[in-house]
Amino acid sequence: MFAHKYLLFFFRRTKITIFSRQSFLSEKTFQVHELFYYKIAFQMKTFILSIIVTMITSVAGAQQKSFYDFTVKAIDGKDLPLSTFKGKKVLVVNVASKCGFTPQYAKLEELYEKYGKDDFVVIGFPANNFLHQEPGTNEEIKEFCTLNYGVTFPMMAKISVKGKDIAPLYQWLTHKSENGVSDAKIGWNFHKFLIDENGRWVASIGSTTSPLSQEIVEWIEE
């Protein structure tokens, strides 16, 4: 709107100053010059609008966070900057102890033991969002995972993965406006997100897909 008003003002001022018919030898000459300045005004408007769009896009891009910009709380209560995992591919998963998909803990651990040396890590986030299937405390969850599935991959403190109290990381994971790639809806426990070694959002994978699926394994190995 500002650019439009500015150009209209510019054009009117220009027309008043230059387009006096007495300044031209003929009406035809006047019309040629008038058309010329109309074209200039249009080109200027297009140019200024393109600059504005570029600036808005640049600002929006600058505001988008990386996976590494977040700090989460580990299951033992300590802060864990996700920048700790720079250079690694990451599988982020919301987990629960009383879910039909809970046996996926074993496959997540198997995946982590096979690939989680230098280039890959699994990060589990307990959440009680779906039918209250993760009612335990952080201490109880840690004990459950260790005793029943021998979990050694990093486990975080319990959070919310949707709704008004959604954790900032999951806000980023599920909104294109935040991650710059895609929106995603978490339908249940053990929903998986893939993050590349540069902290960029790669994929959203539903609960029914095994952690040992071809899709995930090929992504890790590529």
TrEMBL record:
InterPro entries hit by this protein: Glutathione_peroxidase, GPX_AS, Thioredoxin-like_sf, Thioredoxin_domain
Domain Thioredoxin span(s) in chain numbering: 61-222
Pfam family, one: GSHPx
Source taxon at top rank: Bacteria
Presence of the UniProt keyword ATP-binding in the record: no
Molecular function via GO: peroxidase activity
Keywords: Oxidoreductase, Peroxidase
Keyword Transport (UniProt): no
GO biological process: cellular response to oxidative stress
Protein family per UniProt: Belongs to the glutathione peroxidase family.
Entry protein name: Glutathione peroxidase
Source organism of this protein record: Phocaeicola dorei DSM 17855
